[in-house]
Design a protein that fits this description.
Layout: H1 49-64, H2 74-86, E1 92-94, E2 97-101, E3 111-117, E4 135-137, E5 140-142, H3 146-163, E6 171-177, H4 188-191, E7 200-203, E8 212-215, E9 217-226, E10 230-231, H5 240-253, E11 267-275, E12 281-282, E13 285-294, H6 300-308, E14 314-317, E15 325-326, H7 332-339, E16 345-347, E17 360-362, E18 377-379, H8 380-394
Parallel strand pairs: 3-6, 3-7, 7-17, 8-16
Antiparallel strand pairs: 1-2, 2-6, 4-5, 5-18, 8-15, 9-13, 9-14, 10-12, 11-13
Length: about 400
């Protein structure tokens, strides 16, 4: 439930998305305004890029200084919630996920979700700068999470602020989610049922503001073979290692028939193997792990069933949740991005896009190659470009 703190009020009935109670969204008409802007239905306010870029950088500077490792995001969520409310925008919160809904919400309009994540990985070794001490140097803002995905969080929020001062053909929701880096169940997956149905999702991740219109899915398998222990010096026992050899070779060579023009084929890699207790004992157990990156033509359950029909060992999927996704290149959002000179592509890396059951595009400032690296940074001009690009696409968009 969202509480009223004086500017405008809405409450969200935390039911399943299919049972969302629109009557629970209530607005105080006399107080429907922001501290900095007043909504004008007749004309757009001129975009002050410098102002919104400065606001974004100030917010990012603060967030870098608050450690927010996955599942430890509470302090960052508290700060962001207070920051948003100080701009005059009411918030909703579930765990460490923070969201806000455009004040002119209309149930007859489609809804666009602006989403990125506030959690980070742990700092890797090799940092020469302090990961939690933001430092501006030669047009770069250094700090853990600056690139992945703090720059997207702060840019998308400023875009939300601006677009809420204008009349659009859609509703907007801004969501800063947690646990993205670990695909945690307390992140975006727990929030979506509490929100109105989404028509389109924009996922902020470092893509150099190129639109990822397809994303590979992920499934991890634990595969087990059972044998019978015995002394290595005698002809006894059943070696579990020998039982996995054919299956490992199958994972190495098998090719699924359907190949994606954007994502390529399904990719299977054996990444871990474990067996044996000592040199003179025939191992009675051998396990190995398979990393599977799917394309949009196969659900993870489809892949699992096909795999099980080919191998002799016992396989267990850790999860079927993280499926591949794709949005049609003819979608109006994608077409506006192309008109701006952007190039759609397929992303091999996983994001919360995998948990969205509606059309989505992954697009944000920064470079993927900087993520999870020492001395991570974002360029100031990348944030400015992101704000301009998001608004150029979203302002006036019909979906």
């Amino acid at each position: 439930m969202v509480t009223n703190k004086g500017l405008f009020h809405f409450s969200v009935n935390m039911l399943g998305r299919n049972n969302f109670n629109y009557a629970k969204i209530e607005f105080n008409l006399e107080k429907r305004k922001y501290l900095c802007h007043k909504i004008n239905k007749n004309k757009h306010l001129m975009l002050d890029t410098g102002y919104y870029t400065s606001e974004a950088l100030t917010l990012l500077h603060s967030l870098i200084g608050i450690p927010s490792i996955s599942r430890e995001e509470e302090a960052a969520a508290d700060f962001l919630q207070n920051y948003i409310e100080e701009t005059g925008i009411m918030t909703g919160r579930s765990g460490n996920n923070i969201w806000c809904i455009s004040p002119m919400f209309d149930t007859n309009k489609p809804t666009i979700l602006l989403n990125s994540h506030i959690d980070t990985v742990k700092a890797v070794s090799g940092w020469r700068k302090q990961p939690f001490t933001p430092k501006m140097e030669n047009g770069k803002l250094y700090g853990l999470g600056s690139n992945d995905a703090g720059a997207s969080v702060v840019s998308l929020f400023q875009v939300f602020r601006y677009l809420c001062t204008t009349e659009q053909k859609y509703n907007l929701i801004f969501l800063a989610s947690c646990e993205e880096e670990v695909s945690g169940k307390n992140g975006i997956e727990s929030v979506l049922p509490q929100l109105p149905p989404i028509t389109l999702g924009i996922v902020g991740e470092p893509t150099e503001m190129q639109p990822a219109i397809a994303e590979k899915g992920l499934m991890v398998l634990d595969v087990t073979a059972h044998g019978k222990s015995g002394h290595a010096a005698r002809n006894e026992g059943v070696n579990a290692i020998y039982k996995v050899i054919d299956d490992i070779q199958w994972f190495r060579t098998f090719q699924f028939q359907k190949e994606s023009s954007l994502l390529g084929p399904v990719k299977m890699s054996v990444t871990q193997i474990n067996a044996g207790t000592q040199h003179n004992v025939i191992p009675d157990l051998c396990t190995f792990v398979v990393d599977i990156r799917s394309n949009e033509f196969y659900s993870n359950e489809d892949l699992f069933n096909e795999i099980c029909s080919h191998i002799s060992c016992e396989a267990k999927a850790r999860s079927f949740r993280l499926n591949s996704s794709r949005i049609d290149a003819s979608h109006p959002f994608v077409q506006k991005a192309i008109a701006l000179g952007k190039t759609p592509f397929g992303s091999p890396t996983l994001s919360d896009q995998a948990l969205m059951k509606f059309p989505s595009v992954k697009m944000g400032p920064g470079k993927s190659s900087r993520s999870h690296t020492a001395d991570e940074y974002i360029m100031v001009n990348e944030i400015e470009e992101a704000i301009n690009t998001y608004i150029a696409i979203l302002d006036g968009l019909s979906i």
